[in-house]
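Our preliminary data section would be incomplete without showing what the modeling component actually yields. Below, a chain of 837 amino acids is followed by its predicted structure, encoded as tokens that our downstream tools consume directly.
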Amino acid sequence: MPPRTFALDLSSRCSSYVCKSCLDSLRPVNASFRPWLARPSSSRSATRRPQPPPRMPRQAEGKPDPAELQRILTEEFERGPDSPASTSENGLDVKFFDQEAPGRIRRLRDNDEFGVVAGGLDSEVETAINDLEKKMISTVKMLERMEVQGGQSGQEKADKLRQQFKKTIGVQYKDKTGPAAEAHRLMHIPRFTGPRQRHVTNLNTFLARNDVVKGGIPRDRDVAECWKYYSAARRSLASAWQNVPQEVWNYLWMILSWKGEGVQNPNRMQHVYILAKDMQAAGVPLRDSQQLLAMEAMFIDGWQEEAIEVWKKGVVTLGSKPETFKDYWELGVRMCSLHGDTERAQKAADTLLKSSHPPNPRILLPITRALAAKKATADQAWESYTNMRTLLGETMTIEDYDEVIAMFLTSDCVEYALQAFVDMMFSRAIDIRGKTRLPLRVANHFFIGKWLKRLIGAGDLEGAYKVVVYVQSRGITPSPIQVNGLIAAWLRSGSAENVEKADALAWDMIHARLDFVKLRQRQDVVGSHEADGTSVTQKADAEPGFIYYPTRATAETFSIIAENYCSRGLHDRLQKLFDVLEQAQIGPDSFLMNQIIRSYSLHGEAAEAVNLYHVMTEEQHIRPDGHTFLTLFNSLSVNRLIQRDPILTKQDIATARRFFRDMIRAEWTFDSPDTLVQLPRTVLFSMLKAKDFRGMIVAARAMRELFAFHPTEALLIEMATGAGSLQVKTKRNMQRLVGGRHTIGILMKKHRTELIQAGHPGVEMTEEEQVNELHDVLEKLVLHKAGALDMAPEEVRPLLEEAAEEMGVYDIVFKKDPDQIAKHRKLDKRMPGFELM
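Predicted structure:
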């Protein structure tokens, strides 16, 4: 056993640097030892900090005076890295002592001798272990990259290397699982009895599985099950921690602390914190890397002050070793910055940046964020950002700028955020801070629009709104395109708070539009104007004669809000919006018309919706589109009511035919493949539900010429069984589906029999003949449902001609007039995906 040493004890909560033997002499006889990760029993108040141990009488001769020794060592520790008398590499002069015999102490020469005396390992051996750990981690990452980038061959090579890697490092303890593990005491926890023994047995079963770690990389299931079994067994293990082998602790730490791509470990820090406490309770020493991770886990778990105290005590060991120097000081910067101790965080960052290790200037980002969180220290945050920018030079990335901009926007320091964005766009060539008038290269809606687009795309909607308010206060009117995009993004988020913000901003834009219309009507531009609660004033820092207005609403603004009101069923608000639209002198388009028609239809006012459609198309000359007619057909009672009304259903026949006639005569084209699929389907099913069989046949023939519509076999089966039978997989619908398939099969067989009788060989059919077959089967299906399948074509034709005249497609369906077909064709050949189907 190595001799006892006077070194910093991480297990102590005392802030002084005292050796273990002296602490033992200062404690009462029955004082209980409290590990550094143990939570105090009281609440997280200032009284949680333990009281210093009581002073004891002077010890007998032969031992050094503990109080005097504590004073000397405390002075040495508190000198810190900034002390001018520091002589070590990192600015901290630490002296180590060894008690060789009672009353005799010897000062150790250096850190290496302290490592040998305290840990029992030679410094070269410890360095070799740390190097081996780093090589193992880098090897695993290399194998992951090889699998991703190398394709099939790369994966095979990675598998071969992984097998060799497993043999070398023994991740799965090959040939030592199951009974062999129990014999070697590696992956087995022995000698546990009691009512909760089964939990330890389950944990042993988990540890003995050969497939727990696949290729040295845990899976999501491995991490979840490892914590499941270990957390259940903790209570039993706590009764005899000494029975848990070191290899089991190492294995549990590897699984629960794993952090890598493709592995989900959301509760990683909480599990690490609990595992580290258990290991200290069991007397298992933590490696340097484990101590750092345990400190971070303790901090994240809510014990911030305690974690920082432990970190400060680790300056003697972790902060002076080359292997942990960088990680130690970076952890201190992050924790102190999050805790609000920016002064200590800055000192830690200075220690790191002034050391011989390769500096990472991005360590200043946590400090900048902590300083930017308060307006009082915004100037210091800007100075920290400029220092980082200077150190990074040309290596500073756009992501770094984005992070800095987000920091200042969060704390409402929009001017600093704008300056950071200007630095990114103009390579620090323009300085706008403190200027009353912004340069023209910045003070324009094109430049601000780029910034807003970037913020909205990144999801920083609150920051984008702060930018809108700020630039409007500086006499810059943002483009309506970006502001409308912000409103739409708020609405897409779905949260009640964002929906309210979007509604308020949209109405502010609408009021600005109304003010503009009133001023234009009066033809008298004045310096100040009040309207609808919106102030329009002459800006003090604006150019002479410049009148400042907020961003005015456009047709897109009305469309976004109208769609939201319609989807939320706010019919009254939509009516008010439509009334304001006329006052704003913005002509409604087809989108707005579709939303108001849809809203009336959903509100149970289908007649009013149809009347509004006629008024807007005939009096206001709004050109309808495919969505308009899709909305109109959906407004029919057969599509709205669950229980059919015979009177309304009879009225739907005439209404549907008028809709179809208007749809053919209107000048519009399909704007999306989805509408091209939905509109013909909706037309046919609407007429099928209304039992307008003649209209169905005429509509199918007309849409074949104008829409390039060709029914699919699935559509025929669905029409034979009823709408929705293919989407809902119930037993009843499946029976109807089988019956529908049987009906379509019979009709197809009848069609091919007629072809053979007409002289067709009936063996192979061309693509055109297959399309003709589907159309013929559709018409036969309609006649079958109408009970007129046996009627001669000469008897059916007059009925179809009458319907074609009423639907306005007689020249298209029966005369096949090429001029009329070309005039009313609804396909835009320039749009992809609209080729003949």
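The radius of gyration is 40 Å. DSSP finds 37 helices and seven strands in the chain. Preliminary results of this kind motivate Aim 1 of the renewal.
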